[in-house]
Hints:
It is a single chain. By secondary structure, this protein is α+β, with helices and mostly antiparallel strands. Helix content is 34%, strand content 23%. The protein has helices spanning 2-5, 28-37, 46-56, 64-74, 88-96, 117-143, 160-174, 234-253, 260-273, and strands spanning 14-18, 21-26, 42-45, 79-82, 100-103, 145-147, 150-153, 156-157, 176-177, 182-185, 206-210, 213-214, 223-227, 279-281, 284-286, 293-295, 302-306, 319-322, 325-328, 332-335, 338-341, 348-349. The strands form 9 sheets. The chain has a 3-stranded mixed beta sheet with strand order 1-2-3. A 3-stranded antiparallel beta sheet has the order 6-7-8, with helices on one face.
Amino acid sequence: MLYFGRVKVPDAFVAFGLGRKKYAVVSALEFGRVKKTSAFDVVLPLEKYLQRAREIWPQRKPGPAEVIYLLAKDYRQSRFTVPDDFPSGLYEKLYALGLNVAVADGPLFPARELKTPIEAASIREGNRCAALGFAAAEKILRASRIRGRKLVHRGQIVTSETLKFAIEVACLEAGAVSTDTIVAGGDQACDPHERGSGPLRPHELIILDIFPRVTATGYYGDMTRTFLRGRASEAQRALVAAVRAAQVAAIKSIRAGVNGRDVHGKVLAVFAARGYETKHTAHGSVGFFHGTGHGLGLAIHELPRVSGAVDYTLRKNAITTVEPGLYYPGLGGCRIEDVVQVTAAAPKLLSRYSYDWEF
């Protein structure tokens, strides 16, 4: 709805396209603001339709289904196309009212996958905020003291929560909101979506995944870096080097017309050549067991897909993350993530932060 109408509304509302015009039905609470600031061509008052519905169905408590039915009558429409995550309860009510509701075969707005220069700049801004978060976390780690199996900063033990707080404050100050930030060290980092908790240890790999949403635009950034405070082992250095090499190989292969499955294959080839196996056991998976990338925009996960699970041809101006990783309990986890925009040639990098990781 934010993409369709270009206006933030906290509560669900009815909107539809007819011909070349966009229509919205909103309450008095939102009417003036939506009329002034949105991309909707026609803004209609919800209260008018609810009153009509009460008169037609006095025994019912009218809601979205009745409003949509009346809109269909007013605009002489019998059929609507809806997204595949349309509410099933509302679908049933519309069907009972005699409306033909067709589920879209694919995205409701295919153009959303292809980002304009303004959208790309908004995503770049999200990544600028993420980079400030990395800088805040790195500053604490660099200033921390190693005392046995602990990191101490300003007299306090450094924890995942310590770094997450610093990251989220830095993002807020930059104009973005970072929630569900990942700061996971040691074996916690071997579960890619583990948020991380508790003390961070010296000489262990720490995955930081920051995906802030820019408050002014609603667009996300998404970056990951892996840090280590102390001295890395040769095995840890080899692991990080393999992940970075895989990411570079994947980015070099991205261009319009390339299949995302082939980009994923570049990552697999680097890992295989360096002897990193992926195994799936009763206790979990090790190695590289997730996709290489996903689209990014007004949602943290959008089209396109870059993985071995699906065939997906990359299109010019699509934006995707590139985030290979390796995860081995006992050794640790490493993931490095950047964001690129697809072009006819080399992709445009929309994220920037140092790859220095050991300090």
